[in-house]
């Protein structure tokens, strides 16, 4: 009996990968791969195409040998028990590689190669010999010619397949043949960022005039002292003022409105009944934020008669309808789904709503929800006819004051929520960053409001340009050559994982997230044992050099990988979000869909693999760490062309320091069992390239990811485009950073071919940036009542039933 390891990925489908578990499988000698090696001798220049094999076989096959000097590949594939094909491919020994000798370290394998070469030599000898005028040989020659012709045709047919993988054309790895570029960025060590105090010096929840049960519930989850924003906001909201609240990320803005809302509702006498309907609506930009906010309400609400519910895109509409029919007092919702129900669910009445909260208000606007919000406000106010987009536009052109008003004016004297008969609507807007858009939204949703800012000197010093980041976060930037991005990111994951608990890795597009998730979970988190011995000359070559190598793998990263983006279905998103929050150690690859408001208290590291589309996005991404006074670190990847980003951030009083990549890169030496850093980096890059080249699906993902990146890079805000300038980009280098060996044009053609085959009309959708993805779900048919439903990943995701046209005469 022989044993070998079978690995599988337990939750890849849901975007959650436990670092793969290993299972010993006992096999009989007959089925052991060693015993069933089969040589094939296809002399085919297209040997690099992936071989497909039936899933059930546990055979190893060394196939597709080519005598082509410049491009030899021996590849064997073993199908794992779970059906995941593992390639035990190699070898890439190129005369021009300049990466060392071309010897195979494995004796067995070199013997095999030699045997095969001899076979080919014989074969070619036969061809030469056939030059003699001998009828039998002539006949042989004809047969050979026919065979060659057939091979050629087969090769041609394969080549026309839309996925043509050119991996084995292994020209020398030019990873380090790069023109030296200067790092001219000058950081300002004396630059002083604007610092906000997180916690109040003195005030405790028990000092507030709120129900003692709320205080005790807060104490149970460890909250006794108020944060600065809570200290300033809660009394103002309790008094019934409209408020525009700005305070840094992670400063506790959610409780700043949750506490007064709950306190007001519990104080209503007689007690609220379910039939009293919705009293307060909280609008948030993302589904995850809706769930998170709901959860927080659940933690502090011990008043069993007060019902808190949520509505968000992707959920079952009928379940939500039933929830609304039964009666909800506090409703947390994403704007699209909320408006859908307002317009189409009869049981949902909004006439009792006396409090409206817009959390992450600027993001709501960024996502194009302005019109939806306006419509929601009108529905609440029972004023459906007055909507005049032109008037709103004109009004919104008022210039945003660089010094926001600090006047405390109010038309109400008590929190209208306390009085069920009140006809007043109290509105609260919150954000960590202020934009012109927020001022416009405030103008539209509130007649007058109190401006609350936790920055003490705001009246004197505040300028719209100043960005505030918790001072407990160490902000760094990493400068890499474009071609080095992939292995540098891998190195940073390897090294930071040792000290960090939870990492967010922000990427530009969903396709990038999908691709890197697949690559890292399958080809970084686990690697073959004894890989240091698998060398072809100087070059470390993984997979299949030794027959046992595919059987024994080891965990390289003892951490769980997750992915989250807007193109995932709601169930998977929910599961990933929950999983990442609960896990002890994890790496979340994500788009900006989780950049806002998401609270993972133990997150201590942020990596921005792509620059932010807007300056504010930088603040919010970094803000996923350093929450409520905790410490954290943040890294942004910049290329030499992008280094002016650092100076740009300094204009906003945000100061970054350069991170030396070398200590991180040395991790590669350990992992790749390679003494020299460059060789280790090349080995990892090759490992990735081979993995991508030999796996059709992964190759396709890499191509789509690259193409989506190129679109993403064209969508920076006008200000940031000075730094992230597409015209300065070397596309070929970026292709390398996706582990591809084709040219940019070839990649584009591959993707175009794929898309045209699949869903021609969805070409743009697939290549979309995450911003586009937000527009993803559906375009509901226009209804008279609806002005314009923003379709978004955060919108309802509902499909309206088309009303059947009445037949004339019925
Ligand atoms: N009084 C408090 N004492 C201790 N921790 C608190 C307190 N209030 C809130 N927190 C915690 O602070 C963290 C951040 O809170 P919250 O998510 O409300 O921040 P935020 O200001 O809304 O951030 P963002 O701008 O990123 O949305 C949460 O983990 C929350 O539980």
Please describe what this structure looks like:
- With 810 residues, this protein is of the alpha/beta class.
- The protein folds into three domains: 2-166, no CATH class; 228-386 and 406-453, Rossmann fold (3-Layer(aba) Sandwich), CATH 3.40.50.300; 473-698, Rossmann fold (3-Layer(aba) Sandwich), CATH 3.40.50.300.
- The strands form seven sheets. An eight-stranded mixed β-sheet has the order 2-23-24-18-25-26-17-27. A seven-stranded parallel β-sheet has the order 12-13-11-14-15-10-16, sandwiched between helices.
- α14 (485-499) packs across α19 (662-672).
- Mean pLDDT is 74; it is low at 1-133, 156-171, 384-412, 543-549 and 760-807.
- Bound molecules: adenosine-5'-triphosphate.
- The site of adenosine-5'-triphosphate has 19 residues, from β9 and α5.
Features:
810 residues, alpha/beta, Rossmann fold, 3 domains, eight-stranded mixed beta sheet, seven-stranded parallel beta sheet, globular, binds adenosine-5'-triphosphate, RNA-helicase_DEAD-box_CS, RNA-binding, EC 3.6.4.13
Q: What's the SSE blueprint?
A:
Layout: E1 2-8, E2 16-17, E3 21-27, E4 38-39, E5 61-63, E6 74-79, E7 85-90, H1 107-129, H2 135-160, E8 199-204, H3 212-220, E9 225-227, H4 228-238, E10 243-246, H5 253-267, E11 280-283, H6 287-300, E12 308-311, H7 317-326, E13 330-333, H8 335-344, E14 355-358, H9 361-366, H10 370-380, H11 389-396, E15 426-431, H12 436-445, E16 450-453, H13 458-461, E17 473-479, H14 485-499, E18 502-506, H15 510-523, E19 526-528, E20 535-536, E21 539-540, E22 553-555, E23 560-564, H16 570-582, E24 586-590, E25 603-608, H17 615-622, E26 632-638, H18 644-651, E27 657-658, H19 662-672, H20 677-694, H21 696-712, H22 731-736, H23 744-758, H24 763-766, H25 770-773
Parallel strand pairs: 4-5, 10-15, 10-16, 11-13, 11-14, 12-13, 14-15, 17-26, 17-27, 18-24, 18-25, 23-24, 25-26
Antiparallel strand pairs: 1-3, 2-23, 5-6, 6-7, 8-9, 19-22, 20-21
Helix pairs in contact: 4-5, 5-6, 8-10, 14-19, 15-21, 19-20, 20-21, 21-23
The structure holds adenosine-5'-triphosphate (ATP).
